[in-house]
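Sorry to interrupt, but I need a hand with the structure work. Leave the record below and I will have a look:
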Amino acid sequence: MPASIGPRRSVLFLPGSNPRAIEKARTLPADALIFDLEDAVAPSAKEAARAGVAAALAAGGYGKRELVLRVNSLDTAWGEADLAAAARMPLDAVLLPKIEDPARVHRSLDLLGAHGAPAGLALWCMIETPLGVLAAPQIAGASPRLAALVVGTSDLAKDLRIRETRDRLPLLTVLGLVVLAARAHGRAVLDGVHLDLADALGFAAACRQGSELGFDGKTLIHPDQIAPANAAFSPLPEEVARAGRLIAAYREASAAGKGAARIEGRLVEALHVEEAERTLALAAAIAAREGG
């Protein structure tokens, strides 16, 4: 399945030092889980967290959820050991923090390979600094194994000295640039976290906005955020039904030698069919994920 199809509607961060959260995640309806060894773990707990995550993953029980490990930067004392451990874990991807150039992507892949990581292990990259945003196109194209870009909105807001607003207007340029870079290279792209857990309406609005901007899903910090994210980034039943009608109408027109069709008063061309097929593929992928 292409990286842009997902489903990656809800991507929950789990502190690697919190065994209770890691255990509970086996029952949560998130599309993907990020076991976090970086920001969520105190320096004194880094090694214990790494060992705990490795044990939890070895025990299994996470079903069809996509499993990702966020490692510490290679600039830290734990980064290379994290990658060495990740190479031996049953993961779908490794999330690299604060990526600002393709060289760090290449270096991480080399280290994973040196430690015996399977060739199918993907990389995700956090874009969470101004330099990272400016280099996002080069980062997105750094390797075929790079599957997704993740926007670190909290760090970006700090570095850019942005005032937080519910409409996120000050961040729109950054969000759009990262989506553009991801799509230019056929990568998935995930929106940043919403930190105010008491602001359910604001979170729902941010999810709608993220979907409208083209994100595949949203990174989350609490299980209560999963259901709203899943709803916001899922095609509506009427959208799925319309996609089916659109494809059928276009095929009928093509069989008659026409290059376009008209459905419900609108002109339908090949590009609309491609988007309709993506909608159907996403709906099928979501159904498969939720079926087990």
The radius of gyration is 20 Å. The beta strands are 10-15, 32-36, 66-70, 93-96, 122-127, 146-151, 188-191, 217-220, 261-263, 266-268.
